[in-house]
Amino acid sequence: MGIAVAIVLWMMYGDRQNPTKPASSMIPPKVERNQEIVRRYLAGKRAVDLAEEFGISVHRVNRLIRR
User: pTM above 0.70?
Assistant: First the structure.
């Protein structure tokens, strides 16, 4: 890692270690969402429509479907 990157990371995060859990408990589990996306895709819904509906990118939808 370059010195400039190290400085920027230190400025952003200080001496904090990598978090072991999410900063907020408000983050919804995505397992059910991802399964729902795949179910709807297999039922004939387009990836573009799913991406818009769930507020994610088409690339992300396609990655979920390929899994």
Answer: no
